[in-house]
């Protein structure tokens, strides 16, 4: 193997092998989980601190394992990405989230948008746009209530990104850039990609009150978003101080534990039912 000649060959080999077996087991468990419908979608509210209302819900997948219980996405999404299973899982999340959002509207709740994370594997698939069109058709969800979250790294192939994002926009859905500020970004392209929303990565929010550099980055992203006519949402807002500071910078889109963690659909509903206050 490649490790030949490295001093640590003997030390590391068993670990690597174990990891291989673990991956294999996990991959086949993930396949079974899909068949047995063991995945669940949680919804985290996106809050407009200016109007005091819920404006959206981010769909976040969990694996409800029959023995282990709820497994967070960080534990299985990487393997799902590696194996390509993320395409089927992501597809299921999209269907579930669109169906749920339509259901809330039919129940008479004020309409909100649902934001669904797209993996680069899905983004690169030939049938992506057709597939999303089908899901919208089947769920009967008005496209303006669906938002897809992409990351900066997916836009590296500029020509491809312009084409696909253009076709997605033509469906009438919204596009946001997730984890903004952590990756490759070219301000010029934000405009031609016809992005609607920037989501400031939570790492900047976390240290914003103690780290001047991060506060400056956050302020810059917000003013840039405004200049470009984009909406902006701050992720990972955990304290009132963070929210107040964001408000002084003109950012009212808030997502984080301060308001609510990701919740099962029924719990999210109780938030929709409750008249929110500023
Ligand atoms: P993300 O898209 O950046 O999602 C935000 C993550 O931050 C969520 O973690 C959420 O629970 C967490 N979070 C929200 N508010 C706070 C806060 O105030 N403080 C802190 N510390 N964290 C907060 P979660 O649900 O564990 O998801 C982790 C990642 O897994 C997501 O990061 C996303 O990249 C991925 N993921 C989740 N669901 C899907 C999916 O359906 N498809 C794909 N492709 N990826 C998904
Ligand atoms: Ca996201
Ligand atoms: Ca994020
Ligand atoms: Ca992320």
Automatic annotation (TrEMBL):
| EAL domain sequence ranges | 23-276
Name of the featured protein? EAL domain-containing protein
What range of the parent protein does this fragment cover?
Answer: 466 to 743 of 751
